[in-house]
Structures are given as structure tokens and as C-alpha cells.
Amino acid sequence: MKKLISVAVMASMMASVAVADTFKWITYKPQGAGDAQAITTQWFADQFAERTGGAHEIEIFWGGSVAKAREIPEVLAAGVGDFGDVITPYFPDLLPLNNAVGFFIPQPMDTAAVGEAMINWHKTYPQYAEELAAQNLRAIGFRPLESYGLLCTKPVRSIEDLSGLRIRSYGFAYPTLIEAMGATPVSISTSDAYEALQRSIIDCSPIGPALARAWKYDEVAKYYIEVPFGASFGHIISMNLDSYNAMDDETRTIVDKLGEEYLTEYSDMLKEDAERSRELWKGDLGVEVIKFPEGQLEALISDENVQNVRKEWIEKAKALGVPVDAILEKLTF
Known about the structure:
Blueprint: H1 7-13, E1 22-26, H2 36-51, E2 57-61, H3 72-77, E3 83-87, H4 111-124, H5 126-133, E4 137-143, E5 147-152, E6 166-169, H6 173-180, E7 184-187, H7 193-198, E8 204-207, H8 209-214, E9 223-231, E10 235-240, H9 241-246, H10 249-282, E11 288-291, H11 304-319, H12 325-331
Parallel strand pairs: 1-2, 1-3, 6-7, 9-11
Antiparallel strand pairs: 3-10, 4-10, 5-8, 5-9
Helix pairs in contact: 2-10, 4-5, 4-10, 6-11
């Protein structure tokens, strides 16, 4: 990756060493976002201080104040911070193994199941941790996204209704899957999707209820189609590997335990956010929830281009010596 921050800024932050009383967490997320990600980031920091008896604490640098989302892996690896949010799908070449879920949409797992799968794969296959260690990073927790459907500006009641629609696309599987639906994939960032829906640049976006409410997409798109994409994988809560290794055994054990507990704390809160969003949809927001016909999306998995995306990940995993059969059991219907 190209140099992303100045030497001066990096030098000013290099005081982040593992023996320090205060560790630094760098995130692109605004502190006032009020969603499951922001709230549970603060939960982690609060629990860390409490469980270390105040001997250590985490200072969170919110809102991209130290590094933007695409800068975090390099900045974190350089020791500018100790903890950070790595948006895994942004780095397919850097982290192909850890992006497994993104190659298999649709897939049958929900948020908690995706997180548990990631935990298990990291425990079972050392190549997952080695992929991160090559970047001087270590995974201490996982933050999957919610199960996705389609939020649209017009009703969609069958696969035929998707024909010709323009659907927001990103990542690996979505572009070819959208084409298999008979629709047109349009590459648009999360932050630009509100305006794109409002101005009819796109007709639909894959998203879940909690994120649709958080980004206020549901103000301009009033139909949520229960298309069973499954949960997407979002973020690895990462540590600078040197910082992690330099911790004393007791502190490192606390971090590991918090990382394990984080998935439950986060997924429970995300579920509550989704349920709250659905209740709001029934009221003044007036979003209609439409059930998508069973089996119509799953039938597209056999599409040649969809299969080629899946084969791409399988080949990468095999090249790294990872036995794929048990992984594929989780990712396929």
C-alpha cells in the first residue's frame, strides 16, 4: 500500500507502546454514531479499564482523526495505534483468506454464525492468523454485519421484478449475483448511496434494517425486500502485533477474553437495532417489508459467473494450504 500518512504525524503518535498505561484505538467511526459498532467499541474500552483494575486504559481516536478507513491497516501495523477497526472487504488482495464470506453471497449464516465461523477458522487454520501477522496485525475480535436484504425505491415481489433495475454493488460476489438477477450492478460507496437512491441513480441497495436506519436510506427508499443474502462479514478488530506480544500475560489474557465476549455483546445489540428499525418502519417511516419468494435467489448460485467468484476464493485458499471442505460447509446451502 502506498504511504498514507505523513512521517511527522506517524512520529507524533509512536508513543503507543505496549508497556504504556494507555493504548490507542483508531477508528473511522464517529463517536456519536450511536449504533452497535460505536457503542460496543466504547464497551470494550470500558471493560478493559475495569478488568485491568485501572492499570491500563484504551483511548479511542474517533471519526478518522488519526486514519481513514482504508488507511487503518497500514497505520496500525506501523504502531501509530494499538487497536483498530479493519474493514476486511476493502482489502481483498491483502487479506484473501479473511475475506472468505465476501466471495459466497448468498450464504446461509446470520451475524452470530459468521462471527463464530471466523473465530473457529482462526483457531483451526493457522494461515488465517499468518495472513494478518504478515501485516504486523493480530485479530482479537470479529464484527460481522447483519443479514442483508434489498432496500428499494419500488416494490419487488419476485426475481422477474428485478430485471433491469440498478442495484448498488461492491465487493466480490455482489456484482455477478446482481447480473444473474437480471439487474445492473452500480458501484457506489455507502456514504453516497442515500443520494443515489434519492435521485434514482440506483433503485436498490443490499443492506440490513439496522444499517438502513443508521444511514437513513429508509427516508428515501420505502420497500425492504427480504432477499436471503445472509450476513456479510464486516470488520476485524485488530491489534498491532508488536503491541499484543509485548503485553504481560495477564493483560493479554484480558484482551483475548474481551475479544471472545465482544461477538455476543455486538451481535445482540445489532439484533436489537434491527428490531427497533423494523418497528419504526411500521410507524411514521412507512417502509413496506416484502417477502421474497423462497428458492428464487438460491437458484442463481449455479450461475457460471457466480460459481467462478467462489472458485476464485477456493483456489486462493488451496494455494495457501488451507483445506477448504469444512469451510465450504458453512458457506454453502
